[in-house]
Specification:
The structure is a single chain. It contains ten helices and 13 strands. By secondary structure, it is an alpha/beta fold. The protein has a domain of about 90 residues: 3-Layer(aba) Sandwich (UDP-N-acetylmuramoyl-L-alanine:D-glutamate ligase). It is globular and about 50 Å long.
Length: about 280
């Protein structure tokens, strides 16, 4: 989506979205990363394609819906840097990705991925037939021996009811090899009050490598240890923190690092992100 973030009295235009944030960070880390989505035929979509390509992201799986445009969201932060979002994405092109011309060839390529990453937001913004298609893609990747990473990123306003969100989450967990839930989301969605209960739920559904994100407290590793960040920061903007953690963790795991080291890398990237504005801050030193 297009992203509006405030810098003093002015609003800055950039881009973001949970899986996109993770994809950009992976591409920046040198992981060959393609992004499967849909944009429009408008000037904003063309600008997004150019910017993503400049980041090293493979845009060959970005399809075009000429009748729709990108979604839009605005970030507002409180004095502690905690973000909230306002959305305009009801008619975004990404919602109709599985009806776009070229989707068959795009999904055929995606089936051969070493790692497929998606989130509960990915499922939320799709119509029912699109959700089924995305889950079928995840199943195919796993059956072919690829990894499937799933982030249970719960946004209540995207769902008609909690039961539907919970059912979609559980269907995705059953197909995942790497789970990246957040305790706060899981408490809202199904009532688990601690990381152990969240991990047990995900593992019982078949996701053995589950890392529960705990905000400033760090994360619970698959072996039950809690890995705290190197230090607690006073964030400027928490937008994209969990997505950055996902990217740091997944990049390390793809390199063959153990979960503990992957969590350290995830905390480092999340810490860098929250000290800058926007979901995907510009690269710096």
């Amino acid at each position: 989506m297009l992203e509006l973030s405030q810098d003093g009295p002015a609003w800055q235009l950039a881009y973001g979205g949970d899986t996109l944030n993770t994809a950009i960070h992976l591409a920046r880390a040198g992981v060959p990363t393609a992004y499967l989505t849909a944009l429009g035929a408008d000037p904003f979509s063309a600008d997004l394609m150019q910017r993503w390509s400049a980041e090293g992201l493979d845009t060959s799986l970005v399809l075009v819906d000429p009748a729709r445009n990108p979604g839009l969201y605005a970030i507002t932060c409180d004095t502690a840097g905690e973000r909230s979002f306002t959305y305009w994405r009801g008619e975004s092109a990404a919602r109709r990705i599985f009806t776009c011309e070229g989707i068959e060839a795009a999904t055929a390529r995606a089936e051969g991925a070493d790692l497929l990453a998606f989130s509960l937001v990915s499922l939320a913004v799709l119509p029912e037939d699109g959700r089924r298609a995305l889950l079928a893609l995840a199943r195919s990747v796993r059956e072919r021996g690829g990894q499937v990473a799933f982030d249970g990123n719960y946004r209540p306003r995207l769902w008609g009811d909690v039961a539907s969100a919970r059912a979609a989450r559980d269907a995705a967990i059953a197909l995942a090899t790497i789970g990246l839930p957040t305790l706060e989301d899981e408490t809202l969605l199904s009532g688990e009050r601690n990381a152990e209960a969240v991990a047990a739920h995900w593992q019982n559904l078949g996701c053995t490598e589950t890392v529960v994100k705990l905000g400033p407290e760090g994360c619970r590793l698959p072996d039950g240890r809690v890995m705290a960040p190197e230090r607690v920061l006073a964030p400027i903007d928490t937008s994209g923190a969990g997505d950055a953690f996902n990217a740091g963790y997944l990049a390390a795991r793809l390199r063959g690092e153990a979960p503990a080291q992957a969590a350290i890398d995830g905390h480092a990237l999340a810490g860098w992100t929250i000290m800058r504005r926007g979901a995907i801050p510009a690269r710096d030193s």
